[in-house]
Amino acid sequence: MIPYDFAYFKASTAEEAVELYQSLREQGKQPVYYAGGTEIITLGRMKEVYTEAVIDIKGITECQTLQLEQNQLVMGAALPLTKLQEANLFPLLSQTISEIADHTARNKITLGGNLCGNIYYREAVLPLLIADTDVVIAGKSGRRRIPLNSIFDERPCLEDGELLTQLITQSDYLGLPYYSVKKRRQWDVGYPLITVTALKKEGKIRVSFSGVCLFPFRSERIEECLNDTRLNPDDRIERAIQHLPKPISNDVEGSPEYRLFVLKNTLLDVLQALEGETYAHN
Ligand SMILES: Cc1cc2nc3c(=O)[nH]c(=O)nc-3n(C[C@H](O)[C@H](O)[C@H](O)COP(=O)(O)OP(=O)(O)OC[C@H]3O[C@@H](n4cnc5c(N)ncnc54)[C@H](O)[C@@H]3O)c2cc1C
Predict the structure, then answer these.
(1) Which of 22, 63, 90, 274 has its CA 20 to 30 A from that of 227?
(2) Ligand 1 atom 27: the closest Cα is on which residue?
(3) At 23, which CATH number?
(4) What's the mean pLDDT when you consider all of the chain?
(5) C-alpha distances in angstroms, 249 versus 38, 52, 193, 211, 223?
(6) Ligand 1 neighbourhood includes 81 CB (under 6 angstroms)
(7) Is the same domain home to 141 and 183?
(8) What order do you get walking across the sheet with 7-10 strand by strand?
(9) Which tens digit of pLDDT belongs to each residue from 261-277?
(10) What range does the domain containing 244 cover?
């Protein structure tokens, strides 16, 4: 049970949701957008999330869109992960989200919720960062479509009350060669020790990470090192990991040293999968 009372509102358009948010704010309330509700309920029970009003966004048509149109895949932010996974229009995204939580939770957890929530793994963002995905954001001054990479700094940097409505990926990214792996210390379900996603575009490998640090990231410098084919794979990986953001996570899943060990082996698997050669693990 959630140990505090809150009001429930349901918006039918993004504009209505944003206006409701602003007016609740002006009344001194603390509203939150309610997508799958899994985090609000789970963290609300522990009083780690507090709200006085939730604005349900699941009835907003554009937030439920899932279609390929004009050479782009449009994904509504309120789509449950299982719907995206089953449609399998973007295989790298489908594979990555199939490892998030368990099937029952994925029926509720939404794409936008995974990106915008408080739990920092945000594994669904990894394929979107390396596929140059755009985001559509509704706010009090209107609507904007911008590259996800331009507003992603550890998390999507939204202004107070802004609503993520859609994610749009150009269709030429959807069928590129890819690799995605989630490594856990134990069990088949749970948060990652590390998750790595990669794809190859125009002969260059792009890669993004979750679990390595306290936020997901993509790094051009890491990609430059991994793509420097003048060097052997081990040297490329050694150089690449010099550019990891710091600090490396240290938690029940693993120490920084263990994470780095697993990461190096995983990067070798990435190179092997996307360069089509066999590289030995040291
Ligand atoms: C049991 C469980 C297991 C999990 N396992 C994993 C895992 O393995 N990997 C992983 O990466 N994550 C995992 N998570 C984290 C999960 O993806 C996030 O908690 C996510 O926020 C839940 O999505 P939701 O749609 O239920 O969000 P909600 O609970 O509806 O909302 C969470 C927050 O996001 C905001 N928000 C939601 N949608 C939008 C939007 N469109 N625009 C702006 N703000 C928005 C809300 O206002 C709220 O503050 C897990 C969570 C749970 C509860």
Answers:
(1) 90
(2) 113
(3) 3.30.43
(4) 95
(5) 25, 33, 9, 7, 21
(6) no
(7) no
(8) 7-10, 53-56, 31-34
(9) 999 999 999 999 999 87
(10) 178-275
